Amino acid sequence: MLPLVEWNESHVRCWLESIGIKKKYVEKLCEEEVTGAVLKELDEPFLKSMGMKEGQIYIIILKRNELLEHLQKNAGVDSAQADNPSIKASEVLGSKITTNDDKKRVKNRNSAVSMRANAPTEETDSDLKALSIKQPESFHVTSYQKGSSETDNSGAVEETGKEHTEKTMSTFCRRGSRKSQSLHENTVESLTLSKFRQFKNEDINFKYVKNRILAPETGVIDLITPCHEYKSFTIAAKLDRPRLQAKFAYEVIRYASACMNVRTNGTIHFGVMDSVEDKGWKHGQIAGIPVDIEPSSSTVKGKIFQVRLPRFNEHSNKVTFDKIPVLYQRVGTKSEPVKNEELVTFIQGLQEKDVRREKAESSSNEDPMEISQNLGRKLSVLFTDGKNYMNDALLYILVTNSYGKEDLKSVNFLMRMNIFCVFDFDEDSNVSGLYAKYKEHHETRPHFLQNYSNESKMSTTEFQKHLGLFDHTSWIFCNGRSDFRGDEKSCDEDTWIRTKKKYLKKAISFICDEILPKGSFVVLFLLLSPVEKPIVDTFQEFYSEMNGMDYIICIAESKENYEKWANLAQASCNIETLEQRSIVGMKLSHVDATIQNMMPSAICSRHLPVSTRGLCVLPTLEEEKMSSLEILCADQCDDIKLDRSCGEVIEREACEEVHKILDDILHGNRIRYSVAKLKIFHQPGSGGSTIARQVLWKRRKDLRCAVVKSSYPIATVSKHAVHFREYDENDIKNSLPVLLLVEDYDEDYLDELKNLMDAMAARRSHFSKPCFVLLGCKRSNVPEKLCKASPLDTVAVTHKLTDQEKHLFKTKFEKLKKQEDFKHEFILTFVLMSVEFDETYVREFVEHLLQGIDLSSPVTNLMRYVALLNFYVHNSYISLSHCEAFLGLGAYTEKRVREYDFKNNLSEQARLIFIELRENTTCISSVHIIHYLVAKEILHQLSGSQPQSQIAMNLLQEKVLLNHRFGREEFMKFIRDLFIRRDKKSRGDNTDSLFSPFIEHVCKVEDCEKAIEVLKTAYECLGKDAFFAQQLARLHYNHEKFEDAEYWAGVAKSHLPNDSFILDTEGQVYRKWFSFTVDKETDEATPGGIIQMIEIALKAMKCFRAAQQAAKSEIDSMNNAGYFGEVEVGCRLLKLLSTLEVFPRNTQGEHSELVRYLLTDYIPEEIKKPWGKLHSRLKGLRQNIYNALDWISEDLSYFQTDKNQEKQDEDAREEKEEQVYNPRKWLKRQSEVYAKFFTSEYPMGENNAEPETQLVRRMNIYKYGGGSVTTILSFLTDSKETRSIEKLEKIINFYPDDPQKERLEDIDLINYILCHITLACLSPGSSKLLPFQTLRELSNRFFKQRRTAFPASAHFLLTLLYWPDDALDKEPNPDNNDILISALQTMKRMHDIKVKNIAPRKKKIYTHFFLGKDSGLSKIMHKTRIDKLIDGSLNDRRMKWQHGDVWNIGKIRDVLRRVSGWTENGKLFVQGHVGQIRIVPLHYDSVPQGNENVTFYLGFSFNGLVAHDIQVNK
Questions:
Q1: Secondary element (H or E) of residue 1464
Q2: 801, 837 in Cβ contact below 8 A?
Q3: Which of 1336, 1325, 1406, 1394 is nearest to 1365 (CA)?
Q4: According to the model, what pLDDT value does residue 511 have?
Q5: Mean pLDDT score of the chain, rounded to an integer?
Q6: Which residues 6+ apart lie within 8 Å of 928 measured at CB?
Q7: Where does the pLDDT of residue 685 fall: very low under 50, low under 70, confident under 90, or very high at 90 and above?
Q8: Containing H/E element for 554?
Q9: Span between the terminal Cα atoms of the chain, in Å
Q10: Which of these, 1271, 1270, 1243, 1269, lies nearest to 1257 by C-alpha position?
């Protein structure tokens, strides 16, 4: 045998294949040049580093150790017996059998042996072959052989004579001469016992598997049961063809004579090892072919069979025959000649032997009494693991073929099973097969195998959603679909293997490796028609992926179908194991009834309430059509007896508050919309989610209730919700409202859901009550603050209990303590709530818990990691599969259940604090700590021995966790959030943090360097993510490490060069750097230092402009930070330049020299050369700042900005915060700062039309707040109206007295007209106001010069000025109508471009003005004037706007005009100057269906005309 150290990569490859290692790992090991010497030394860390999974590592290490042990035991064995290490354990050698008595017989006149045989003509031929050796009136012999290929058998071809015998021997010679065939030592300890082929069996499907073992040789038993003799032929196989033929014939004829003379059936096996003759092999180990001998009584009666055996004569070089015939007999397990002295006695005994033979044949022909198995119990054990009922949490993967009509009557059990997917090999399944039947009961998703190949490289989560897995049963047509019009037809086996098998491998690997965790599913093979190779390939793929048969079951009613399947499948799994996991011969109807009897519950109809106060049935098929909703039925759990040992369920008082608000929404007097919102904000662990579900539970009989699965697209949820409401209702208009619970929602998600459901409901009818109530339940650390902001529809839930709640908790706690074996830790969350989450109690509990804990154990490390994530990342967890892998627990095992119990491998402390949850949609179980306050305290106390930064560093080094396949995307998201996700008040957090809470903790408690180090490690370990580099840049510049910040911003930019947020971060690096440098500079700044500061500022502005351009192409976000950044840096740069000696102020203190430098070609001599590279960029500074300010102003004109009002009265805030929360105020302040540098008298000339003069005039206007739409309109919100009026009049004075004669620039004209409209709102009698008609004429330019790209504000002014006026438009005017229509169309187009695909919440229509009852300028009323007519606080006013209560206020009705219009098919119209104009409704659901006359209040926005409070004329 070749020593292990001398093996090359090919030897190792063959050995790896023989022990069943996956092909991809075999290839990887070969690529890594793993030779025998390496194989001897390799260990688990080496294999893990290659990405190998635990199960495969276990097999390699185990088998390698067995090999080494066996080699040591057999060190003295002649290496010549096994110097070829290649072996393939799955090689199939069994063959077709031909034993028919009516075969042609060949006469042998010379008493020699004549042969007729079937044998392969070459090594790779996979057809089953038969060799027949016959002697007249003597015996009938058939031999069997199969080539080395594993390809399926296709039949036998008969040949006669010497030519074919030579072919047989030639093939066997080549097969046997492979240096003892295999490295038999490397598998000898793991060889399995094989059954004998049934004697005289013509089943073409039976196969012997190479290297398995047959039972020991046998002697005569009962004449019918064949005796067996083995001949290895290991030496003979090395002979040439004539010598091999002679040896083969010698053994067959001798054995045949012996069997026939004693009248017993027999089989001689060639290539089956005899331990006496073949050292180093197992006795009975299979390597070759069998030959059957059948001495039927009709042939042998009264005869003896003497033979002259053939031998190869070396001298004559030909076959000769023995001169003296010899009579052979079976003696024990040997074929021995009858001795001369015993010959007479032997012949005399033949008559008795003939009688016994006839009797034996007669007995064998009778139908044997088969002992029936208890298949019912076996079926029960396979499906229930010996329990009373099936585990209804298990998923099933069904693999099946075609069904008959009768079969389809007995598959009801499949309709009730939780089937994940089906591999269907019936092309007619959708026409007349199982798929057609199944669709009557369940929603499905039809697929083909190639649909699972994921050629677009989606992530696992994306691909899972794309396929709709876990939504509906995925039905995979594995070999075409006859009714499909596309190019997907069935094919023969060879074509299937060539074209589709690769997709089968991908599909099964994806399901087993990426989607379904171990032990969560069972693969069921249901074989109801003849089996073909592809379905066997499917078994072999699942067998390999699942490491065995533990989770595979086979059911076959037909024994023939099963035997073919099993014989082909035994290449992967031995027959005995297959039989243990198979139900064979049981009628399908019996299988159906038996399995249904094992199911946990009977079939119970589910019901929904209806508007007539009755019930309707909700079939499973209908429910599955609404897969985005978890539906709560009216009779949910009515058939379950609840365990009352824990007493009544406590309801917090907030539950009653929710019911009151819900009743008010449904039955109150408020204005009702089709979709209403009700919110619950709760502190973590305070029971908010429980309250929300208690509300659903109590309302399930009166409303249709469901929980929204927020992972689904909003459009899908809306569609399902509408269907849910209308299902089985006669009167859709009066259908019951739907109560939908949306948990842990994003504000954008909830608002977009509401808007879409509004629109969908509105298209159906006009409703007198809400169709849907969205019950939002969201975690918040400041729920009371959020409740105060919207008290009419919000409930706050905190840890603090009321006196009544304290009494309830105390009473129940005392009752629980009286129970036996009560321990606080078993209901820790309840106890914590009872003590209102007292910090001292939690600290003492954790201190007691952690006493004596092993700080170095893997379980303690797992506790640290779970605590770290649970405390810093809301709703985080670690999958159970991750935990098992981390603790080194196995994957699949040899038993039906796991060898281990996860909890048994935990420490006592971990068992008390870990909770295991199971995700309904993905079947992935997860682990987290019972409460985040406990997680916080565990983390605090365990970080005493190890700082939190080190815990995070250790977590990042845990490759087993980071690379584990199940639930990997969710786990990686939690890791990313740990390092990147910032706190935001808008999400319910306490603060708006600059960095993730974890990074801020490390910076505060440890130091900045530790935070930088852990972020760098995260960047390296998590795939060099651009956003980690971005965080490093931010962290560095916040700690004044600007060179490093510049480097990391560059790294982030190299990954995502067109991401506006990363480009903005690069700009922020230079902005912070510039500010820092300017702040620390003294009056003695060097010329070089000044140039450096200017360079940094200009770099920042360049980066911000790049961010602006990138943001324009991003359709899913509106990132305006680049504009704000450029303005801030630009204004700071202007301030720096104004302080330099080279730009002295004039006697009036104005910056005349600086303005001259920036606006003209003038350059002071002292900076001409030193600033050579700066001049061109600085001379564009003013225009760049102006463009950015103008863009911000236009942008703010579009959208509602509630945040501004919330922050309006707060004095202290950061500048960065101001641009977010009060951008209007920020714009006004920055405009003043910018304008003051350009308000110099220089270079004013005599001609007011000179560009310089116009510029200075414009800057003066800017200085007073008249330079943009937003700053002009902000005068209307100034609490000091007199000051605003004075400023507006002063601004108007800066303009020419006659703007019609002295043409204004377009932007100046826009601002000029808007100043008049704003002044008219504040002071209608001001002498500075132009007549309304004059303003119309001035604005007419925006219509006449339509080819000019005017800003949206120009068209906005046209809608205000050209809306029909009672005084000016008494006669229809087509021209005015054209102007109005054109303006509205242009505004709509510009608005659509502006808002992109962003969330509705961020693009709420903001109505600036309303139509009043007067005429001219007086009819234009700003929203702030209406606000002043509303009593109450800011929050009260906001709620009245939100619910439409403002339109019930008499003062408002007195000043606003109701416009008359009409509706057609859900669209709203109004009469213009000469024709109809379509109006946008603020709420789509407020538009009545059909054709109605309506009235409404008209608003003016940048999205066009908006209708408020639409009412049908009475």
A1: strand 1458-1464
A2: no
A3: 1336
A4: 92
A5: 82
A6: 866, 870, 876, 877, 878, 914, 915, 917
A7: confident
A8: strand 552-556
A9: 104
A10: 1243
CA–CA separation, 359 vs 352, rounded Å?
A: 11
pLDDT by residue (tens digit) across 1309-1330?
999 999 999 999 999 999 999 9
Q: What are the helix and strand counts (H, E) for the chain?
A: 62, 37
Of 1478, 1474, 1500, 1499, whose CA–CA distance to 1487 is shortest? 1478
Provide mean pLDDT across the span 1263-1277: 89
Residue 98: C-alpha distances to residues 133, 142, 287 (Å): 12, 7, 21
* pLDDT at residue 657, rounded to an integer: 93
Task: Kindly report the backbone phi and psi dihedral angles of residue 917, in degrees, each rounded to the nearest multiple of 5, phi listed first.
Answer: -120, 155
Tell me how far apart the alpha carbons of residues 427 and 1007 are, in angstroms, rounded to a whole number.
Answer: 66
Predicted pLDDT at 26 = 87
Quote the CA–CA distance of 759 and 722 in Å, as a whole number.
Answer: 11
Question: Tokens 């996700």 sit at which residue?
Answer: 981
1494 alpha-carbon distance from chain centroid: 48
Check residue 800 and give its pLDDT: 87
1229-1266: string of b/e by CB count within 10 Å (b at 16+)?
Answer: bbbbbbbbbbbbebbeeeeeeeebeebbbbbbbbbbbb
Can you read off the two tokens belonging to residue 1437?
Answer: 């006013």
The single-letter code of the amino acid at 1090 is I
User: What string of DSSP letters covers 403-437?
Assistant: --TTGGGG-HHHHHS-EEEEEE--TTHHHHSHHHH
| Token pair listed for 443 | 């929603």
CA distance 1012 to 657: 47
Q: E strand or H helix at 398, and its extent?
A: strand 395-400
Query: Among 1047-1051, 1093-1097, 1151-1155, where is mean pLDDT lowest?
Result: 1151-1155
pLDDT value at 175 more than 60: no
The answer to whether 681 and 795 are in contact (CB under 8 A) is yes
* Strand, helix or coil for residue 392: coil
Give the mean pLDDT of 1197-1214.
47
Residue 107 has pLDDT above 50, yes or no: no
* DSSP state, residue 226: P
Question: Rounded to the nearest 10 degrees, what angle do helices 1281-1294 and 1251-1263 cross at?
Answer: 180
Cβ atoms of 941 and 847 within 8 Å: the answer is: yes
Maximum Cα–Cα distance for the chain, whole Å? 153
Cα dihedral 401, 404, 408, 414, rounded to 10, equals -20
| CB contact burial 1210-1228 (16+ within 10 A = b; e otherwise) | eeeeeebebbbbbbbbbbb
Burial (Cβ within 10 Å: 0-12, 13-18, ≥19) of residue 684: middle
DSSP H helical ranges for 1364-1449: 1374-1395, 1423-1427, 1434-1443
Q: Which of 1045, 1054, 883, 881 is nearest to 966 (CA)?
A: 881
Per the CB < 8 A criterion, the answer to whether 851 and 857 are in contact is no
Q: Which residues of 405-415 are buried (b: 16+ CB within 10 A; e: fewer)?
A: eebbebbbbbb
- HSE value, Cβ hemisphere, 13 Å, CA-based, for 252: 27
Q: pTM for the complete prediction?
A: 0.71
The residue type of 513 is: D
Residue 630, classed as helix, strand or coil, is strand
Q: What CA–CA distances, in Å, run from 29 to 17, 24, 42, 50, 51?
A: 12, 9, 11, 8, 11
Token representation of residue 226: 């064949």
- For the ranges 450-459, 553-562, 1177-1186, 1211-1220, the lowest mean pLDDT is seen at 1211-1220
C-beta of residue 596 within 8 angstroms of C-beta of residue 412: yes
Query: Phi then psi for 1511, rounded to 5 degrees?
Result: -130, 135
